[in-house]
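Subject: mismatched residue count in predicted assembly?

I count 226 residues in my input, but I want to confirm that the predicted structure covers every chain. Input:
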Amino acid sequence: QQQVKQSPQSLIVQKGGISIINCAYENTAFDYFPWYQQFPGKGPALLIAIRPDVSEKKEGRFTISFNKSAKQFSLHIMDSQPGDSATYFCAARAGGGADGLTFGKGTHLIIQP
Amino acid sequence: DGGITQSPKYLFRKEGQNVTLSCEQNLNHDAMYWYRQDPGQGLRLIYYSQIVNDFQKGDIAEGYSVSREKKESFPLTVTSAQKNPTAFYLCASSFPGRSSELFFGSGTQLSVL
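Triage response: the counts match. Full output below for your records.
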């Protein structure tokens, strides 16, 4: 059973446009929702994260929107650049989180120049 | 230069052979994790360890084994019982109580000859 559902699987956006990636979850014990960015042949790196008591968090061109009642959260990349082309993973952590993170299946983002 | 080092970057396994993937960290993290990444499947947890000489199975532990004899090291053995070992393997570490902030190595690509 997939605990974090991520969509779309792939996304093509023109340079300067807005990239939007969505995730949904069922487990109400999740209390922390990070996004990771991965370039080919590299390990993922933490991009931005949010807790469920906040509806939005912004860091530069990256924004997480969180809807607790709908159990959904999304990543928005404003003014998308070719250097943003990567695979993005949403993730979630249950309370305590000793067993790490549960990841979505990833979104392959391509920004066309 | 602190970080997580995985070796080798590429590894080939013959039929019936056990292979060991190395993971070393100098971040002074107590917790370490192994994830398996398959195209379009996201990251799935194999094993994790919160402290030296202790480790727990993740979601897909069958066919794998680990040891944690030193805080800095968490090697993963892919045994002959793992019938579909071809994947990208990622090691991660974190401070205790903050498992959401995972720091990843650059991965090992394992292929079957």
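Chain A has no helices and eleven strands. Marking this ticket as 'not a bug'.
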